[in-house]
Amino acid sequence: MQKVTFFKSIHVKIVLIYILLILLAMQIIGLYFAQQLEEKLIDNFEESIMDRMEIIEFSVREEIIKTRTDDDLTVEQSLRSVLNGFSSSSSDISEIRVVDSRYRILGSSAIEKQPLIGQRSADELVRESIVNVLPREQIKINEETDRRVWVTTQPIITVGGELLGILYLESKVENVYDQMDEINSILAGGTALSLLITAILGILVAQTISKPISDMRKHAQAMAKGNFSRKVRVYGDDEIGQLAKAFNHLTNRLQESQQSTESERRKLASILANMTDGVLSTDRRGRIILINDPALRLLNVSRETVMNRPITTVLGLESEYTFEDLIHMKDAITLDFGTYEKSALLRTNFSVIQKETGFVNGLIAVLHDNTEQEKIDMERREFVANVSHELRTPLTTMRSYLEALAEGAWQDEDLAPRFLNVTQTETERMIRLVNDLLKLSKMDAGDSELSREMVDFKVFFNRIIDRFEMSKSQNVTFERDMPKTPYFVEIDPDKMTQVFDNIISNALKYSPEGGKVSFKLSEEDGLLQTKISDQGMGIPKENLDKIFDRFYRVDRARSREMGGTGLGLAISKEVINIHGGTIWAESDYGKGTTIFFTLPFETDDGGEWE
Ligand code: ADP
């Protein structure tokens, strides 16, 4: 914020206004007062002079018209004493002069003017007064003193109306002006003093106004920086006090709303950061202005590279859609952001940020990782197709055999038992298939309860091999490699038997005549490892992992021919997994296959095994 310069500050302005107003008022008052006073003083001065003039005129007239004897003083002598008496009694009168009607000076109160007595008066005013027989007055400068004097002339007239002469009076009017000057200087001093007092008062008054305002300014500056802790001091209950209160109230409201905005912002940021879905937001031109971490992860991009870039480019949609299209997009679209290693299908919904006026302010895109769901859906579709296929094949076979039987083959003693045998085999295979499916679905649902028992795994394994050895119809030799010490494993014996049945029957199924099936039990990396190898046809490397998938067979026709359901290894994998183990296969294509699985074990039976 800009700093207020000294001369622009309210403080200085208020003080200046005060001073100027007082100056103006004092000037007007002073002017009026001085003028009135001057007029009054001069009037009074003139009046008092005129009054004295009357008395002097009377005395002078009396002296002139007085009848004299030779012993008496001359007119001039008696006039001198009269005039001196008047002149000395009044400090305002500088000279009183008497001039007769023939312009001859009869007397003067001024000592320096005594030589003029008897001479003709050259004074213009005296002349005019004598000629016109009228009083005259004039202000002029006394040449000797260089001061202003008020000169008045008064004709001296007898009762009979005869003009005896002129009374000439010079009064010190300058005294009045001196007095005025004195008064004016007192007035000026008073003005200066009042200006000083005004300035001091102005500063104090201005302070009461400017202090709270400057407080509020500082407060507003602090608020702009986010500091809401300060409060403006309320100095009174006047308008400024009210303003300060309103300002404090505003601060509180602003702080509250800022806090709520901040908490909303934090909430939103935490929601955006912690949600699993990706969120992108654009400005009205479709450029990315916000992107959360999950979106960065799903799109496999960095924030710097996508900020301010068009959303269509970031989502890889520029060839199919424009930003306008996305604004009007009602349905979700699926984006494929999969890489070579990992597939990623993102279901994307768009919603428009719109003002009340309908003006589009931006677009929000929500990315949901749908890869798992899509995978499950695909597996489900595949599974249903597989099951239908697996069931249709035996059913078709059975239908054709049953049709043949119905059409008369049942009477054929050779064909009928063979045909019935086939339908029986197919029915058994279907039952096996349905049973396998049930087992799997139970394990999928987590319903299959394990009835665990602690068994010596070596004994358990040997018993199963014995069973196969006794019942085997092929020319296959069995080779066993068993450890000396017992290994106790807590297993569900029925389920584990199924696992062995599946693996060993596969090994026998694919073993050539005269082949060898080896069984090995050993401790590897703290786990009990079972290894069953055959010398059969083997499995191509690329199919090795898939043999544990449901319905997967390397050679579909051959497996079916051998009565397989394609679910055996899938069930085995589930059983081993729920026992806390792992199962895998290794194979040398054309030379043989080895199936491994590990299980956690204990060397002590815990007193259970007898
Ligand atoms: P099936 O009922 O078809 O035997 P499995 O799940 O048990 O189903 O096995 C899946 C597929 O794995 C088989 O169809 C077969 O192609 C392959 N396979 C399993 N064991 C062996 C083996 N020992 N030798 C060769 N191929 C095997």
Structure characterization notes:
By secondary structure, the protein is of the alpha+beta class. The protein folds into four domains: 12-179, Beta-Lactamase; 275-369, PAS domain (Beta-Lactamase); 375-444, Signal transduction histidine kinase, dimerisation/phosphotransfer (DHp) domain (Helix Hairpins), CATH 1.10.287; 449-599, Heat Shock Protein 90. It is built from 15 helices and 17 strands. The protein has helices at residues 10-65, 75-89, 124-132, 174-224, 239-274, 293-299, 303-306, 311-314, 323-327, 371-406, 415-445, 457-471, 493-510, 556-561, 568-578, and strands at 93-100, 105-108, 136-142, 147-157, 163-171, 278-282, 288-291, 333-336, 345-354, 360-369, 453-456, 477-481, 488-491, 516-524, 527-533, 582-588, 592-599. The protein has a five-stranded antiparallel β-sheet with strand order 2-1-5-4-3, sandwiched between helices. It has a five-stranded antiparallel β-sheet with strand order 7-6-10-9-8. The protein has a five-stranded mixed β-sheet with strand order 12-14-15-17-16. A hairpin with an 8-residue loop joins strand 8 and strand 9. The longest helix is centred in the N-terminal third of the chain and has 56 residues, at 10-65. The radius of gyration is 67 Å and the shape is rod-shaped.
**What is the 3D shape?**
rod-shaped
Give the name of the CATH superfamily of the largest domain.
Answer: PAS domain
What would CATH call the architecture of the largest domain?
2-Layer Sandwich
Give me the count of strands.
Answer: 17
